[in-house]
Structure prediction request, 787 residues.
Amino acid sequence: MPDPFDSILYKYIYCTLSSTGDAECVGTGLFGGGLLPASLDWLAFVLTAVIIVAAVVNGVLGGVLMMIWGERRLLGRFQGRTGPNRWGPFGLLTPVADAVKTMFKEDVVPTVSDRMVFTVAPILMLFPALLIYAVLPFGSGTWLADINVALLFIIAIGGGNVLAIVAAAWGSGNRYAMFSAMRAVAMLISYEIPLVISLIGVLMLSGSLSLVAIVNAQTIPFFIVQPLGFFVFLVASMAELNRTPFDVAEAESEIVAGYMTDYSSMKFGLFFLSEFAATIATSGVITAVFLGGWHGFDPIPSQLWFVGKMVIVLSVIVWVRASWPRMRIDQIMSFAWKALFELTLINLVVSGLLVLAWPSLSTTELWYMAGINWVVFLASIYIFGKVLGPKHDPRRAGNIQDATLSRSDAPAIPAGGAD
Amino acid sequence: MPLSTQPITINVGPQHPSTHGVFRMRVTFDGEQIVDVEPIFGYLHRGSEKLAESRTYTQVVTLTDRMDYVASMTNNQSYILSVEKLAGIEPAERGVWLRMIAAELQRIASHLVATGFFLQDLGALGTPLIYMMREREQILELFERLCGARITNSYMRPGGVFMDAPDDFWPALDRFMAEMPHRIDEYEDLISGNEIVAARCDGVAVVDSQTLIDASVTGPMLRASGVDWDLRHRQPYEYYDRVTFNRPLATASDNYARYIVRIHEMRESLGIIKQCLEQIEPGPVRPEEVPALIRPPVGDSYVGTECPKGELGFYLVSDGGVAPYRCKVRAPSLINLTLLREMLIGDKMADLFVTFGSIDINMGEVDR
Prediction:
């Protein structure tokens, strides 16, 4: 079991409060440490936990507000407009205004709804999104819990939002919502499989399910060593997050707002919040597992490296959202089962053989693996694109032909023939 | 034991993000599959045809603005041509050229709106729509210079237009003409080659050309099925027989074909405007002898014009008074919409609004 004192956060706060004189606490802690008497050591544990949870939850909420602002600004740039810039410097306070407005909205509960389920669903939705942050390493020493099954934890917790979506749809008694829930269940369960299998390649390289161990194993960022795994994980997590082009569960132009159609006020706010919180959490997982986590060069602190990489992942997600239309549910399903699933299997087999060939996993050997994996990646993407992609050039699909006739051509029907 | 299933009926609209106004469909689904569609309209009925009977011929122009409110200029043009035929007014040459320029600009603007909202229905989050609204904005600014109004123009009058274009209109139009071809290329780069667009639109909602002709569907929807039917060429009105233009035809008759025909028609409209600019000459925009209060002789008239959405025609009956005795509108939006049920049955729910968007209707014109 990893030592909780590895986490700087824990060590600092606990040592400030506790006065039992742990060996790790010598010289750390504010005010010389030992604010609580030795008999209240249990309270020190509890208070440490409460403080950390409060800090993280509020940090996540702040991050969500920042992301709402960032996404809207970025979308604005992609779309040739300015984006929100009225309230606060660069419009930074816009999400605060949005939040206040959302809170003051009337909380409508439809008469046909199952009141209990309707109320619980938004809370259910928020839990998994927040719990992922418990295992994210935000910097060297800056994590809440370094549990040895962190990846399993994330996968297990991340699947929980399906339940919330079905609960919301069932609770609100709306047919659009039921459509959305059926789509969400079908899609999320299908994409869970490539998502999990794409991580196995990483596990073989790191030899551990702990995110801290995975980050420490990345002498080269794993997206270089595992391009296929990275690609599949990125695509599958975008599907898990209901982001464009996989946003069929809340397809605005088809089923209004999907499972959120009947929600208003803070219940809607919670859905919105958890969606963004989950997006940020997933970008954190991608950063930790594939982009080298907090590793970077020195003058910049490791926490900033981590956040910077997360921002890059989030920008890519927004970029995709700004430029692509939505896929249809049957196309999404066939994409998962015909393309992503096979790609992960290829990745699994190739990575297994490579680890068998170079079991010591030194940096040089990782580079060899990276070379072979990139060849496999490009070749398989090309082949799958040929087999599954559009059978003809889309530009020719309409088979445009110009009927070139000039003014000298006699019209087939004389002028004014309709009279 | 097999699961028992039953079809589910949903009222889509009249309040829905993508009904392009207030359209209502009672759709029956079997899972995601559409089993039945019952279109219900009339939510935007304002009685324009009846109102026209109590207004003078010039006043009715303002009513036509409000029918298809994203293509007011072509509505004006269609109505004015019918009045001119009824009253036997010979329009001024410069006025006709100005009407053609305005109508072709309006065609581009209307196709921009159609394509933008079509992609919005496909789920492209605003980006293509906002790009296209940006160019439409330039066209609306040109209209503002031309007649002071952006949407409800009421620019045209029997005999021509109500005032000549101001001097600053021409350089602005030149700037627009220089820029627009690059913009259309930009749309093509963004949309036409996109695999998701192709996957979503190829082979969806195919209707064969005979069905379209039987339902008297017109406009880009008919041309996307390979039927070469463009009233500007078949029954040249105004001076369309003095300009050269291609009529883009597609054979696939699916949603993609309807999209690509509109993109190509925008290019052709630019070509027509260019030729108009070469041939337009100074002169009066409206003959002096047209009276303010027109009293056409007893009779009737109909002129079909090629509007962005299809054939628009005003059937006017005169009893010799100052107001039309009867004004019947052949609205392309309404007639193109009649095939909706045939196009949708068997498709997926996601195709519902994509197909609806590809028909390009305007509820203001459907319900009048």
User: Anything to note?
Assistant: The first strand of chain A starts at residue 401 and ends at 405. The mean pLDDT of chain A is 80.
